[in-house]
From TrEMBL:
Topology versus the membrane: Multi-pass membrane protein
GO biological process, one term: respiratory electron transport chain
Domain annotation Cytochrome b561 bacterial/Ni-hydrogenase: ranges: 208-413
Keywords carried by this UniProt record: Cell membrane, Electron transport, Heme, Iron, Membrane, Metal-binding, Transmembrane, Transmembrane helix, Transport
Pfam families named among the record's database cross-references: Ni_hydr_CYTB
One Gene Ontology term of the molecular function aspect: electron transfer activity
Family under the similarity heading: Belongs to the HupC/HyaC/HydC family.
UniProt GO cellular component terms: plasma membrane
Localisation per UniProt entry: Cell membrane
The name this protein goes by in its record: Ni/Fe-hydrogenase, b-type cytochrome subunit
Record's keyword annotation contains Transit peptide: no
Gene: cybH
InterPro entries named in the record: ATPase_P-typ_cyto_dom_N (IPR023299), Cyt_b561_bac/Ni-Hgenase (IPR011577), Di-haem_cyt_TM (IPR016174), Hydrogenase_cytochrome (IPR051542), Ni-dep_Hydgase_cyt-B (IPR000516)
Length: 429
């Protein structure tokens, strides 16, 4: 048997790593016959996907194994002008009996259109077992496992492929990891045809009101503006500075003006949030949620969540709104934010000491001293930066692990929950 390009007239592709679909396209979704479907793959050894599939399809010519049949069909679909012959004789094939991969000997395999046809031994089977033989690089191992995991979530099993060339003296060279091809059963009734969750499997909950979302994004803008202008007040990091003896214009004045304006808007945002906490009928936004620990079970759930966040547990308890750890963090940040507002107000009051109300607000500056108040104000700014970094990371992490759309929920207001799930804070879902 010769696996060469003679039958393939349309092969000016560049071998590279990629994923594409090998669907035969013969059957519509509705009337699929029971069998096996081939759905893309990953090449790490430099082979084009068509050649990877050719390798994977090498099997005894008379094989009726559904996987072999499906691979050959896909090959026919990919090579419209004539697929390469992939059948080998029974002597050239050693099926997977005691090991989790089979071996096949082919007498002429071309890695690319122009490369020589070589005697090659091909192994195909379970990914881990084939990787144990072919010993791919650490990087490729991770790439293969990750992609296999992703294919697995769509119901595919990976048929891994590795190859070794046989030298002129008959000596077998080292195995090279080539990649894998995805296969999955269809129409068997044993497994769902398409395991990708559909919208029927999920429930959408409208969680965050438009008002709360508006306040959230206003917070983002204000904290950025307050940080930039505040940092500038502390250390004028751009523009001309007085210290270089250059006329500075009114830049610092503008910075302070923006800082104070944003500061007062931020205080208004804080008051609005407090109003929502006490007057909203939505239980996820009320002040009661600020302290999430009411029972021993809540305490345990806090521990479990902590374990999940520190990679000690595979799963944490499921919450529709905030888990106890998130809630405690947000409550703390509210407290620290309120403190920042009070310190800012107290510093601002220093400009209006003739007014008894401002003089009263400025009292902390005389108790602790202005330098301490300014230091605290700056330290809280840095604390905020840490919070923002962790908050963004954890929000994206939770969204990608739990697939609930938590990040977009701060825009759209809604999260997604699996219909079968039983969140701690919404048992009636
Ligand atoms: C996220 C919130 C805030 C951040 C990150 C922030 C940051 C800063 C920073 C870094 C400074 C410079 C400190 C120094 O070296 O003296 C500063 C000064 C100041 N901030 Fe804020 N601030 C915030 C909120 C507020 C609020 C709500 C007010 C109240 C109106 C306020 C009023 C002031 C005042 C009066 C000063 C002193 C300005 C001066 O010395 O000329 N800040 N802020």
């Amino acid at each position: 048997m010769r696996l060469d390009e003679s039958t393939n007239r349309n092969s000016n592709y560049v071998p590279q790593r990629q994923v594409e679909f090998f669907s035969s396209g013969e059957q519509s979704r509705e009337k699929r016959k029971p069998g096996v479907e081939v759905g893309g793959g990953l090449s790490v050894g430099g082979l084009s996907l068509r050649r990877l599939l050719t390798m994977a399809a090498v099997s005894p010519a008379d094989s009726t194994d559904p996987v072999d049949v499906a691979l050959r069909n896909s090959l026919r679909f990919l090579f419209r002008h004539g697929a390469p012959e992939t059948g080998v004789s029974r002597e050239d094939f050693d099926p997977a009996k005691d090991r989790r991969y089979s071996l096949a000997r082919v007498h002429g395999f071309q890695r690319t259109k122009d490369s020589p046809a070589e005697k090659t031994v091909i192994i195909r089977g379970d990914l881990e077992s084939v990787m144990n033989v072919a010993k791919p690089s650490h990087q490729d191992r991770i790439l293969l496992r990750k992609n296999a995991q992703m294919a697995g979530s769509r119901g595919y099993r990976c048929l891994a492929v590795a190859s070794a060339t046989v030298g002129d003296n008959g000596e077998l060279g080292a195995f090279r990891m080539e990649g894998f091809v995805n296969v999955r059963p269809v129409g068997t009734g044993l497994q769902d045809e398409d395991l990708t969750p559909t919208s029927d499997d999920w429930v959408r909950l409208q969680l965050w009101s438009a008002g709360l979302r508006f306040l959230h994004w206003l917070n983002v803008v204000l904290i950025v503006l307050l940080s930039v202008t505040g940092y500038y007040i502390m250390d004028p990091f751009f523009g001309d500075t007085f210290f270089r003896g250059i006329e500075t214009g009114f830049l610092m004045g503008w910075m302070r003006f923006i800082h104070f304006s944003c500061g007062f808007i931020w205080i208004a945002v804080g008051l609005a949030r407090a109003f929502i906490a006490f007057f909203s009928k939505d239980r996820y936004m009320r002040w009661e949620t600020f302290w999430p620990i009411h029972s021993k079970e809540d305490m345990k759930n806090l521990g479990r969540t902590l374990g999940f966040y520190t990679f000690l547990r595979k799963e944490g308890p499921l919450y529709v709104a905030h888990n106890p750890l998130q809630q405690l963090t947000y409550t703390s940040i509210y407290i620290v934010g309120a403190l920042q507002m009070l310190i800012g107000l107290s510093l601002y009051a220093l400009y209006h000491m003739s007014n008894p109300v401002w003089a009263f607000i400025a009292l902390p500056c005389s108790w602790f001293g202005i330098p301490i108040m300014r230091l605290l104000h700056v330290m809280i700014m840095f604390l905020f930066w840490w919070f923002v970094i962790a908050h963004i990371y954890l929000a994206f992490r939770a969204d990608s692990l739990e697939r609930h759309g938590g990040v977009s929920a701060m825009i759209s207001g809604g999260v997604w929950m699996r219909r079968t799930s039983r969140p701690v804070d919404a048992p009636e879902l």
